[in-house]
Amino acid sequence: PESITVQELANRMAEKGADLVKALFKMGTAVTLNQPIDQDTAELLVEEFGHRIQRVSDADVEIGMEGEVDAPETLKARPPVVTIMGHVDHGKTSLLDALRGTNVVSGESGGITQHIGAYQVKTKGGDTITFLDTPGHEAFSEMRARGANVTDIVILVVAADDGLMPQTIEAINHTKAAGVPMIVAINKVDKPEANPQRIRERLLEHEIVVEDMGGETQDVEVSALKRTGLDDLLDKIMLQAELLELTANPDRAAEGNVVEAQLDKGRGAVATVLVRKGTLKIGDTFVIGSESGKVRAMINDKGQNVKTAGPSTPVEVLGLSGVPMAGDQLTVVENEARAREVAAYRQEQATKKRTTAAPTSFEHMFSALN
Ligand code: GTP
Ligand code: MG
Predict the structure, then answer these.
(1) Lowest-pLDDT range, 85-89, 156-160, 222-226, 326-330?
(2) By alpha-carbon position, which residue is closest to atom 18 of ligand 1?
(3) Ligand 1 touching residue 92 (CB < 6 A)
(4) pLDDT tier at 101 (50, 70, 90 boundaries)?
(5) Distance, CA of 196 to CA of 178 (rounded, Å)
(6) Rounded CA gap, 229 and 92, in Å?
(7) Phi-psi sector, 362: left (phi>0), alpha (psi -120 to 50), beta
(8) Helix 17-26 / helix 39-48 crossing angle, nearest 10 deg
(9) Atom of ligand 1 minimally distant from the CA of 105
(10) Which positions ≥6 away from 102 have C-beta within 8 Å?
(11) Whole-prediction pTM
């Protein structure tokens, strides 16, 4: 009773066995259809596929608030969510600035990104791309690990004059663990001492083989400073995105993840949420981590008030009961009573988790994988 085979679980979930095997492989577990998996793994899978878990022993407790799986005909194309990773000072924020045509770097204290910014960029072809900028500081690696779980594509920024550094390698490992495709942006190619070829060679040591060297990883030479190579980078992102066939159902109760959150003087608890599916609307009642709330206002990445936010859209949400944590899940629920119930349940679960073993960042990462 403590274990179940992949095929049995697939039958109960009315999913294809092969899809479960694939999902397990992404989680780092290689199993065949007839192999048994333990209960924790089974629960993760069930959640991953958006089903509810009914515990026989604990029948009135539902883990996860995800509704039924979205029927294929409800799915519509959504923008890719791209996370920019790389070593400190290799130019992540500058690159994002250049892509947005703004200047965030000069407004940062000491030029070190202290939070994850989320922005949308429109390409010349009219496509929208959602970008997450991650902090480069060593101390934020945990947050960065969480940042990968909502990500479709990772841009690995490597400064051509500096090469592969500890956090570059860390980012490579996070990306591999998350099973997310990577595009390498070789930055600062304007510098006289830049040596892009050396970077391509060094990447081989980490089993990243760029197209030029016969591999499958796309790479592009850019200069965030001189603004060169940017259209090429955007093209490559869209090429990768098309291969991924990214979709979501926009016409359902919203689900999303906290990208960053803080207590704001005057505005109270504020969270930047990346909507994954559904459409978040003013007035929606939600649970966010172990907090709850009602959407009082939403502000987009351009600082404008918006009434709705669909899949892959980052928005600042006002109206929270408290400050959630980065990576926490937002789920829209029917009413406030239900919100309080779920929030209390999650709080209880969080306490339980803290008193048992601390999860590794890898676990964090795939526990929220969609
Ligand atoms: P953290 O957020 O601290 O990890 O840094 P970051 O990766 O966001 O780097 P940031 O964009 O702050 O850039 C670091 C420094 O490199 C700044 O002084 C930039 O002006 C400089 N820089 C960024 N891109 C380029 C480039 O393409 N060429 C040159 N020459 N300098 C660049
Ligand atoms: Mg930065």
Answers:
(1) 326-330
(2) 89
(3) yes
(4) confident
(5) 26
(6) 14
(7) alpha
(8) 100
(9) 12
(10) none
(11) 0.76
DSSP 2: -
The number of the ligand nearest the C-alpha atom of 105 reads 1
Bridge pairing between strands 314-320 and 268-277: antiparallel
For residue 366, pLDDT beyond 60: no
Termini Cα distance of the chain:
27
Residue 323: how many other CB atoms lie within 10 Å: 18
| Nearest-angstrom CA–CA distance, 39 and 43 | 6
Strand partners, 259: none
| Residue listed under structure tokens 């796309």 | 218
Cα distance between residue 148 and residue 153, in whole Å: 9
> Is the C-alpha dihedral spanning 307, 274, 64, 135 positive or negative?
negative
Rounded to whole angstroms, the Cα distance separating 192 from 189 reads: 8
Quote the distance between the C-alpha of residue 156 and its chain's center. 15
- Binding site for GTP: which residues? 86-93, 133-137, 187-190
Q: Which residues 6+ apart lie within 8 Å of 324 measured at CB?
A: 258, 261, 269, 271, 288, 289, 290, 291, 330
**Angle ∠(114,117,121) on CA atoms, nearest 5:** 150
Compute the distance between CA of residue 86 and CA of residue 135 in angstroms, rounded to an integer. 9
Quick one: tokens of 312? 């892959």
Q: What is the pLDDT of residue 268?
A: 93
How many beta carbons lie within 10 A of that of residue 151, not counting itself? Answer: 25
Tell me the average pLDDT of the chain.
82
Q: How far is the CA of 106 from the centre of ligand 2 (A)?
A: 10
DSSP-derived secondary structure letter, 142: H
Reading the block at residue 1, the tokens are: 């009773």
Residue 370 pLDDT level (bands cut at 50, 70, 90)? very low
Strand partners, 329: 257
For the segment 324-334, what is each residue's pLDDT rounded down to a tens digit?
987 788 999 98
Token pair in block for residue 20: 């479960």
